[in-house]
Design goal:
The structure holds two protein chains of two kinds.
Chain A (H helix, E strand, L loop, with lengths): L2 E6 L2 E3 L20 E3 L1 H16 L3 E8 L5 H10 L3 E5 L9 H15 L3 E5 L10 H9 L3 E11 L2 E7 L3 E8 L2 E5 L11 H7 L4 E4 L12 H4 L2 E8 L7 E4 L4 H11 L4
Parallel strand pairs in A: 1-4, 1-6, 4-5, 5-11, 6-10, 7-10
Antiparallel strand pairs in A: 2-3, 7-8, 8-9
Helix pairs in contact in A: 2-5, 3-4
Chain B lengths: L2 E5 L2 E2 L2 E2 L1 H13 L1 E7 L3 H10 L4 E5 L3 H4 L3 H14 L3 E5 L2 H14 L3 E9 L6 E6 L4 E7 L5 E4 L14 E4 L11 E8 L13 E5 L9 H11 L2 E4 L1 H5 L20 E5 L5 H4 L7 E6 L12 E4 L2 H16 L1
Parallel strand pairs in B: 1-4, 1-6, 4-5, 5-11, 6-10, 7-10, 13-14, 13-15, 15-16, 16-17
Antiparallel strand pairs in B: 2-3, 7-8, 8-9
Helix pairs in contact in B: 4-5, 6-9
Classes of the chains: A alpha/beta, B alpha/beta.
The structure holds flavin-adenine dinucleotide and adenosine monophosphate (AMP).
Flavin-adenine dinucleotide (FAD) sits at the interface of chains B and A.
């Protein structure tokens, strides 16, 4: 039987752009170009590799996001995923982590899965909680923050490099996996891949399709509220000295003046 | 006053500093009740009491070490049911965030991650977060359920405030999912003897400019002369020159020390995300145009192979 992998990918504002907040304190998606979160490319890559090792696999990329989020799906398809699901609904604007996880869980169940793959964190929200939230909601094991992952005989194995130890993890499918940016470079889409992606199916789902009430999501339905967002004051310009042989001494002098020595 | 659950981060009963910070913050919004999972609760209780824990709920079981995350969620949920707290605070480690997330689903509450400060407000605790690579500070609160908040290291200075810290056994029954992910083996990270990166008062980091694993001893010597932790940019880590556990930045550690010294690091946005909130920033870079110089309090435009050893010597001389 075919191994069904669902990869959750997020469309995010480019981190090298000038990111800020919109009027309603949600992430401003207008002023900065969006792209497939770089950290989710690692999840797509590992899904493709697991797919290549399996006899038969079907890889679906899934996103919850605005119209433009199709770009992220298209990129993942051009890397080699088979099909895409786009959950899109005006009422989703402002949905927080708990809400997003509820929507993703419903969409994953509707799609059908043996393995859910995520990135380690989104590059805009950087919460890193979605995979755990999904595992809890789906009621399946989590094999998260792994830098190495493989699937054999209905089991998923992974290496988790934690703060205090490296752990080898094992769980039975179905399971939720998240991979770190240490898991291996993501491939670039080939020209052939880009052409092929144009013909791959992208299914659109709205809240009705997932039996979710508008009140449960969006800014109003959110479990958290942002009351204020303030730009960090620019750091006051510092002293910059060109080393003419005395740079080390001058720096020591400065550090001593600041009582660091 | 209402009670606030604080999940304890410890190594066999040796309480880690971020937990003391959590207890300090918890006192602003209620009476801290510490939840200690695993061995060493008696030893830990002394420290926890000193920093304000009115009670310590303790549970030990092999499941906590043998399976990933979920057994601790079961235990924290049991503590939640026993106490009916007004908030739950968890250290912002990768494990801590995952425990907090799953608890939030179970109790139907909102979650805020990576708070850098916490104060009480009319509508519950208000958490400050540093977002968009520390370009913005937001203030948020949980609007549904009991706030579950994870707090970053170095969010406040731990303050002692002795309390009873009575140890009570917490009874935990593990659910069906508890044994879902087995920890087949665990290799503890070897200690370098240097301060913990996220807790250190001074961090000295090296980047691509260090140009090889064999040169990192230059960075280490400077760090040792200052009693500092050693950090690295992703470029240095990807090149295999220094371990990933030392990476500073978006996909590494966030540090917020009194002093951050960046050597041979250009200052890409993803690196800034991990160090921009440092109090004083110093850089050594041979390119006067490097973006890191936009952040610095003091910068030297020069070759790190000249400047760093000279600085190390001078620090040693001054320290005698
Ligand atoms: C999703 C994502 C996540 C990322 N996460 C992180 C992260 O967590 N941490 C991180 O650091 N990066 C991260 N990056 C990478 C980041 O974008 C940069 O590529 C990286 O920080 C560059 O490292 P660097 O400054 O050491 O190297 P470079 O940008 O190559 O800079 C090297 C600097 O060293 C200077 N130099 C060279 N030789 C000398 C010398 N002899 N003396 C003095 N100066 C010298 C050069 O002038 C230059 O400025 C991430 C990227 C992405 C896309
Ligand atoms: N809106 C979304 N649509 C699809 N996947 C998402 C979405 N948000 C987060 N994810 C997935 O969850 C991971 C962690 O995200 P976060 O918890 O937001 O940092 C990401 O790397 C994605 O794999």
């Amino acid at each position: 039987m075919s191994l069904r992998i669902v990869v959750c990918v997020k469309y995010v504002p480019d981190a090298t752009g000038d990111r800020h907040f919109a009027e309603d304190l949600t992430t401003d998606r207008e002023s900065v170009d969006g792209l497939l979160s770089e950290l989710d490319e690692y999840a797509v890559e590992q899904a493709l590799q697991i797919g290549e090792d399996a006899d038969d696999a079907e890889i679906t990329v899934l996103t919850v996001g605005p119209e433009d989020a199709k770009d992220a799906l298209r990129k993942a398809l051009s890397m080699g995923a088979d099909k895409a699901v786009h959950v899109e609904d005006d009422d989703l604007h402002g949905t927080d982590a708990l809400g997003t996880s509820a929507v993703l869980a419903k969409a994953i169940e509707k799609t059908g899965y043996d393995l859910v793959m995520c990135g380690m964190a989104s590059t805009d929200g950087t919460m890193g909680v979605l995979p755990a939230l999904l595992a809890e909601r789906l009621g399946v094991p989590q094999v998260t923050l792994v830098s190495e992952v493989s699937v054999t005989d209905g089991k998923v194995n992974g290496r988790r490099d934690g703060d205090t130890a490296t752990e080898q993890l094992e769980a039975s499918l179905p399971a939720v996996v998240s991979v770190t940016d240490q898991s291996g470079e993501a491939r670039y889409p080939s020209f052939k891949g880009i052409m092929a992606a144009k013909k791959k199916p992208v299914e659109s789902l709205d809240l009705d399709d997932l039996d979710i009430e508008a009140e449960e999501v969006g800014l109003e339905g959110a479990w958290t509220k942002v009351d204020d967002a303030t730009a960090r004051p620019a750091r006051t310009a510092g002293t910059i000295v060109k080393d003419e042989g005395e740079g080390g001494k001058q720096l020591a002098e400065y550090l001593a003046g600041q009582k660091f020595i | 006053m209402s009670e606030v659950l604080v999940l304890v981060d410890h190594v066999d009963g040796a309480v880690r500093k971020p937990t003391l910070e959590l207890l300090t913050l918890a006192r602003r919004i209620g009476d801290p009740v510490a939840v200690h999972l695993g061995a060493g609760s008696e030893a830990a209780a002394k420290t926890l009491a000193e920093y304000g824990a009115v009670k310590v709920l303790a549970a030990d079981a092999p499941e906590f070490a043998d399976y990933l995350v979920v057994p601790k969620v079961d235990a924290l949920k049991a503590a939640y049911d026993a106490v009916s707290p007004s908030a739950v605070l968890v250290p912002s480690s990768s494990e801590g965030k995952e425990i907090a997330a799953r608890l939030a689903v179970r109790i139907g509450s909102g979650i805020i991650t990576d708070a850098v400060d916490l104060e009480s407000g009319d509508e519950g605790p208000v958490a400050s977060q540093s977002v968009f690579a520390a370009g913005f500070t937001t203030k948020s609160r949980v609007s549904k359920g009991t706030p579950v908040i994870t707090v970053k290291p170095n969010s406040t200075a731990p303050e002692a405030a002795p309390a009873a810290g009575t140890v009570e056994q917490l009874s935990v029954s593990f659910g069906e999912l508890a044994k879902g992910t087995k920890v087949v083996s665990r290799t503890p990270r070897e200690s370098t003897g240097r301060p913990e990166l996220t807790e250190a008062a001074i961090v000295v980091s090296g980047g691509r400019g260090v140009n090889g694993a064999e040169n990192f001893h230059i960075i280490e010597s400077l760090a040792d002369s200052l009693g500092a932790a050693v950090g690295a940019s992703r470029a240095a880590v990807d090149a295999g020159w220094y371990p990933h556990s030392n990476q500073v930045g978006q996909t590494g550690k966030t540090v917020s020390p009194q002093l951050y010294v960046a050597t041979g690091i250009s200052g890409a946005i993803q690196h800034r995300a991990g160090m921009q909130t440092s109090k004083t920033i110093v850089a050594i870079n041979k390119d006067a145009e490097a973006p890191i110089f936009d952040l610095v309090d003091y910068g030297i435009v020069g070759d790190l192979f000249e400047v760093v050893p000279a600085l190390t010597e001078e620090v040693k001389t001054r320290k005698g």
